């Protein structure tokens, strides 16, 4: 089985037509912040790089907790929805950039978050970028919203991926994510 280490095309436009619909995705549970505080030392003054921010659903958790969040999103339409949704937060720092080239300074963030997007990045380059921008042994938060993977939505999503990437429509999405996690761990 082939491991997808990068998108075979410029993925910055891949989800443009879905930007408006992503606002209907479920948010993330606020209890996650307690877990991060209690187990990983998350503090209000910590700076977060939310890579692959999409419309900003995950970043919003941190912004509401008072963190400064760099929302890094390569897709212009998703980026615009993110800015529209989160612009009222003073600590919101939007960047129209990629996971592999964030433009952030070296050693500038305390936490890195990637929600629902790991499979879209070049694993090796993203790992290098995370090591560069993170302060010390920076925690990387990987998050997914789990849903009924047999639903019509996910059937259509798998078909979309199979048409526009080298994703096999019969391969479970979790399998792709697990391959990326293993690949990141080995480098």
Principal-axes geometry comes out as globular
Uncertain segments of ≥5 residues (pLDDT<50)? 1-9
Main pleated-sheet profile:
5 strands, parallel
What name goes with the CATH superfamily of the domain at 29-145? Answer: Vaccinia Virus protein VP39
Examine the secondary-structure arrangement and name the CATH architecture of the domain at 29-145. Answer: 3-Layer(aba) Sandwich
List the keywords:
5 strands, 187 residues, 5-stranded parallel beta sheet, alpha/beta, Rossmann fold
Write the layout of secondary structure elements.
Layout: H1 31-40, E1 47-51, H2 57-64, E2 68-72, H3 76-86, E3 92-95, E4 111-115, H4 123-133, E5 140-143, H5 152-164, H6 173-186
Question: What can you tell me about this protein's structure?
Answer:
The chain starts with 30 loop residues before the first helix and ends with a helix. A 5-stranded parallel sheet has the order 3-2-1-4-5, with helices on one face. The protein is globular. The protein has a domain at 29-145: 3-Layer(aba) Sandwich (Rossmann fold), CATH 3.40.50. β4 (111-115), α4 (123-133) and β5 form a beta-alpha-beta unit. The longest helix has 14 residues, at 173-186. It has 6 helices and 5 strands, in the order αβαβαββαβαα. Mean pLDDT is 81; it is low at 1-9. The relative contact order is 0.17. With 187 residues, the protein is an alpha/beta fold.
């Amino acid at each position: 089985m082939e491991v997808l280490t990068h998108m075979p095309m410029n993925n910055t436009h891949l989800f443009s037509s879905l930007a408006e619909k992503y606002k209907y995705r479920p948010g993330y549970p606020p209890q996650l912040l307690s877990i991060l505080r209690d187990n990983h030392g998350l503090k209000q003054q910590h700076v977060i790089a939310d890579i692959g921010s999409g419309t900003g659903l995950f970043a919003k958790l941190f912004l509401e907790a008072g963190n400064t969040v760099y929302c890094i999103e390569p897709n212009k339409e998703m980026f615009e929805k993110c800015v529209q949704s989160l612009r009222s937060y003073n600590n919101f720092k939007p960047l129209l950039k990629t996971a592999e080239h964030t433009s952030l300074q070296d050693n500038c963030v305390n936490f890195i978050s990637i929600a629902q997007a790991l499979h879209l990045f070049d694993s090796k380059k993203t790992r290098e970028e995370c090591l560069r921008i993170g302060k010390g042994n920076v925690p990387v938060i990987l998050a997914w919203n789990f849903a009924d993977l047999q639903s019509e939505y996910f059937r259509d999503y798998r078909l979309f991926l199979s048409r526009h990437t080298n994703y096999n429509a019969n391969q479970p999405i979790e399998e792709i994510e697990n391959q990326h996690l293993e690949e990141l761990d080995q480098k």
